Amino acid sequence: MGVHHNFNWKSSILIPPKAHQGKVVLDEDINPGDSKRITDANSWKTDYDISNGWLRFGGENNSLKSSYVEFFPGTIMGIDDDGNITELWLHPILK
Fold this sequence. Notes:
By secondary structure, the chain is mainly β. The protein has strands at residues 10-11, 20-21, 45-48, 55-58, 67-72, 75-79, 85-90. It is 0% helix and 31% strand. It is globular, with a radius of gyration of 14 Å.
């Protein structure tokens, strides 16, 4: 649980989208420790760019259909017009 193995990651050239700095607000109550499944995430793929360290989890990468918010340094969420999460970009710092 909670582990995302890298055996199905696709090596790609990733350029993170232009994102506004902000916050993500949920429209429902979730208690600490609860989880919420993103229905469309079952078909998401994982792309990784070894040259810059960015990871992208998501469906079809189409920045014309999503707005992007950086809600934590190196953490960008794509959100469509209906408020659904379309992708997640991470730039982890590994030490």
